[in-house]
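Sharing in case it's useful to others searching the archive later.

Someone asked me privately for the predicted structure of 7-cyano-7-deazaguanine synthase, so I'm posting the question and my answer publicly. Question first, with the sequence:
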Amino acid sequence: MMIGLLLSGGMDSVSIAWWKRPDVAITVDYGQRPAQAEITASAAACEAMGIRHEVVRADCSSLGSGDMAGTAPAAVAPVSEWWPFRNQLILTLAGMAAVRIGVTHLMVGALVTDGAHADGRPEFVDAISRLMSLQEGGITVSAPAIGMDAAELVRASGIPREVLAWAHSCHVGNLACGSCRGCVKHYRTWEALGLDPY
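And my answer, the predicted structure tokens:
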């Protein structure tokens, strides 16, 4: 079985890459504002771990909403960075690449704290796995850290600080803004670990 990981370049997915050592990591540029930084961070982390890295590009920016799209959040948005059907979109695009290269199982970096998003909950992961397994390629999906918060994941993974330092978590740009929900989570995770990110 060939295993893939949806790698955003953030702390969570980089930690899962170190912990689970997939055969390939797939980063998706779907038109999000920090796409280039996410690709750069993912590529550097994969190089440090010796993991094959694939990039998928599909500009869906006209469909976006919130911080990652550079627009006001939609009326139904639970949080400011919400993008309609984001995880479903990314998993579909990554799944298309996965079928092409022979991946049969995809991991995602959902955590217990991602429950603010409907597509970050265990029932979504189970449903998308069932859906994708019914299609050609029979891909299944799992979220190995779904019961953990970010600090618990980092500790469980054993990832070295110098590899984790590659992570890019900003939701609004290629340089960390320091104030979006992604940046705040990033710094709070370092704090919870008792580490200075600098």
